[in-house]
Amino acid sequence: MKCGRRSKEPGALYMKLRILSFMLYLYSNFDAMKKFTYALLMLFAVQLGFSQNKLWKGYFSFREIKDLSESTTKVVAGSENALFSKNLTSGQITTTTTVDGLSGETITAIYHSPTYKKTIIGYATGLMIVVNEVDGSVLNVVDIINKTLPPTIKRINHFMEYDGKVYISCDYGVSEYNLATLVFGDTFFIGDNAAQIAVKQTAVFQGRIYAATRYYGIRSADINNPNLNDFAQWTTVAGGAWLGVEAFGDYLMATNDAGSLQRWNGTTFGAHVQLQQVPVDLRKSGTNLIVTTANFVYIYDAALLQIRLLNSNEIPEIAATFTCATLINNTIYIGTLDDGLQSTTLTPGPFVDMTPDGPLRNNIFAMTSAGANLWSVFGDYDIFFNPYPLDYYGVSKYAPTGWFNIPYQDIEAAVGHEVTSMVRVAANPANPNDVYISSYHSGLLKFENDVPVLLYDPNNSSLEAPASGTLRINGSAYDNQGNLWVTNNYVNRFLKVKRADGQWQEGPDLGTLFQSISEMIFGRMTIDKNGTKWIATRDKGVIGFNENYGNLAKAITDEPGNLPSVQVSIAVADNRNQLWIGTRKGLRVLSSVDSFLSGGDLEAESIIIIEDNLAQELLYEQSVTDIVVDGSNNKWLATADSGVFYVSPNGQQTIYHFTKDNSPLPSNSVNDVEINGITGEVFIATDKGMVSFKGTATSAADNLNNVYVYPNPVRPGYAGTVKVSGLLDKANVKIADIEGNLVYETISEGGTIEWDTTAFGKYKVASGVYMIFVSAEDGGETKVKKVMIVR
What we know:
By secondary structure, the protein is mainly beta.
């Protein structure tokens, strides 16, 4: 078919148009549908495409390597709270995160058993997770957590496999775990009189098990002794503080906290070499022994001759601190504290960063959507707004193509100045490549096209440094005229604005709202439809300011204002112009932001819900860290220690409450929430990593050209909802079975609706193909989709 001409024969596109016209006719006449059931069913069976959509995704940093393990076919790395492996043949990298079933807690040790095809992960809490590489199953083992021991001594330090058992070195002693039966065996408290002492590593050598303890020497016993749980069976073969012990061919090697690599001579340990630093890891790999310190990797051959000494200075691009290393097929793999997994050859050569894509750090303090991109910063401050110790972290940007990280060193070099403790991000709505980052110590940093180009400070802007302090810039927001407003702490004229034309100005003196300049400590800022700036403060509630009404300024506090706390985290207007206020001790709502423009004090109200037949306050005494309003006017409420809540427009219904126990959230401490209004992806940043949830939080579309349905098909066992996205606001959506029986109808708010796959909430619909008819509010546009449900 050529452009501008119609084919004489009905091609595929023409036929689809005819089919669509026919469907639209049926949409207006449900009875007619029943006459064509069989024909339509056959048509849909041919036309239906199958797709899947996971509701959760993980966006973790893999740059803090805690431990390495290996086999002949792969190297496995444990980062802060995630796992990744590289197939040495194909080069494929596989990641495992909380989305796959891991815990969000801190990993302290990993071990891969090639014989049993299992990877064991140990945590600081004593949790142990077993990942079966055959079927991908994840087993949580809580035996150590459940032991009646102080929680501070349950840390897992090392795994050692021998004769089908894994010996687990912990801060209380040693435990056995059977890899075949996945059952715990005995626990050995090997200190004097069965004292609980920290064991760093174990090894089996010439029929005896050796345990390197942190403060009580190296202790040994017959590995075949059935009474190893009797402390009297263990003897001390060397005193002092030891960090590792390893059986290596004909040698038993150990390291101590004096930085000495020592060798067992049958009766005692003697120095083999004095290392330049205290060792952090000792292991064998094939016919090599590897000792790692913070800046060096020592590699020895089978005769204990040093064949390579690797210095961190050999990696010029980074200032690496090493945590562990191993050698496989003449390739050295080095775990680092902040720079991921690096590899190089045994013969000195270039280094390769093998770290999976991800942000610079897991603890994302704040983030902002900019078009299709998500910017993240990692500087922070405590509840008293104290930024010390200062953070020297870079910036991460997530784009559809992946993560782009800008290291701190690059930022400092680009602007010629320290830019520490970066805490907020503001993106220009008119130009997503124009991004500003607030430093709670140095000023305001400008990025253009992902490049740091300028640091605004008192020398080139209206920003002020107080007489007794540093330049602390925090909340920043754009108004609808393209002006960028920022808060400047500890100065009377604390509001500054960078006009759309690039000129800087300062706001009026609002010092009368405060008793002293020391109270002028500001957090996030948002701007409502009237141009009113709503500024969260540390101790003075919420400050509202509007320069268009005679520099009108008001405060909402506990008295007047009815806030449960004057420590406010966020105040944001929803789609119905209500102001939602999150504080350190609960939630309040101002009925209308318009009331700010009229006379009188502002009074916020609590949200009363019915739970367990009792009236109670929504998020009573909860520390609310962020509030985000989606396209349907539902709210995401982030908390400091209870995860994240997703509630209805009025807050009366809790649609979801996600925690680390019922979802892939790695932590219940949520720092920030951000929504991609195009895709509906909700990013949830916690202090232990970021995940996203694919909800219905999409902005309304301009037309119905891109309506889509997911998941499709709905497979057996799926317990979630079917989502229809790409909708106009207030679109009419009808869902009917193949015989034309209506099973669901709703009006969209925003760009997405959900269907629970029931017939008007009464019962689950049967297997089959279901028609989804969409029409605009005025009937000017229509769209027909279909979904297959398989029970």
